[in-house]
Specification:
Elements: H1 16-26, H2 37-56, H3 87-99
Length: about 100
């Protein structure tokens, strides 16, 4: 299933091929590029809750994603050097803080 296509009928979610296709589409942005891991987690959470809602409304007998093993992509653990101060900036910051009275 490509990003931006029409969703399949609810009963089709019991087919593992369709369910995996939908889960794979969660990994994509609308332009077809990869979505950020946190975005994929958020999208999957919404899908799971929507399927639970459909179960509550009697549209589904069981949760179709419970039988599928699927992992959310992991986030990179690297730190962006632009967001961390260097030693010179740290010294200047500590010096400036010493001038602030409290």
């Amino acid at each position: 299933m490509r990003a931006g296509t029409i969703s399949p009928p609810l009963v089709d979610f019991h087919d593992p091929v369709v369910a995996r296709s939908v889960l794979g589409a969660l990994r994509l942005r609308r332009d077809g590029s990869a979505a950020a891991p946190e975005t994929v987690r958020r999208k999957r959470k919404v899908l799971v809750k929507a399927l639970y809602y459909a179960m509550g409304q009697g549209e589904l007998g069981s949760h179709p994603l419970n039988r599928i093993r699927w992992r959310v992509p992991k986030q990179a653990r690297s730190v962006d050097p632009r967001s961390v101060i260097n030693p010179h900036q740290a010294r200047d910051l500590l010096a400036a803080l010493s001038y602030v009275g409290g």
